[in-house]
Design brief:
With about 190 residues, the protein is of the alpha+beta class. The protein is built from three helices and eight strands; from the N terminus they run βββαβββββαα. The strands form two sheets. Strands 1, 2, 3, 6, 7 and 8 form a six-stranded antiparallel sheet that branches. Keywords: ATP-binding, Nucleotide-binding. InterPro entries: P-loop_NTPase, Rad50/SbcC_AAA. This is ATP-binding protein.
Amino acid sequence: MKIHELRPKNFRKFEDSVFRFNADSRVTVLIGDNATGKTAILDALSIMMGCYLQDFKTVTARHIRKNEIRLKRVALGGTITLEPQWKEGVAVACTASLDELIDSQSSTPGTLSWSKELNSRSGRNIRKNANNIAGFGGEASGRVEKGEPVLLPVLGYYGTGRLWHQKQDTTLSEPDSRTVGYRLSQVK
């Protein structure tokens, strides 16, 4: 999977941003000062990958969390407050190609675009145009279950939040599916 573009809107620190990634490069490095949004970009990518994982039976896909709404700094009468921007909701959109994940016997999908939105504090995540990407994920999940060879995308990163969490035991007591890496990556 190659991510071409990521668009977070009212997501964490980003009001409405576009990040374009070099599709010819095999590695992307994010560099920036503390609190500039590097981990937020990676979290947004994780949410987008959650659409691919939606049809995996053994995996819980990553969703937009209610605390990821952008907080706008408002100064009124000498008081500064941070106001959640629920009127616009929070959304993350992505454009990517899956050419490397699809074998020569499948039709090449070219470029896909999809998004996730959360429009209210009490609402649920809404997927838009995500059926294609979820379908490819479901096909890969089925191939794993049959023991067929299939490439599975992995997004691995560590945010600074890891510094405050106790280390948890992730030892497996018995053999498990190849998709276990998706479950272990969600251990908090």
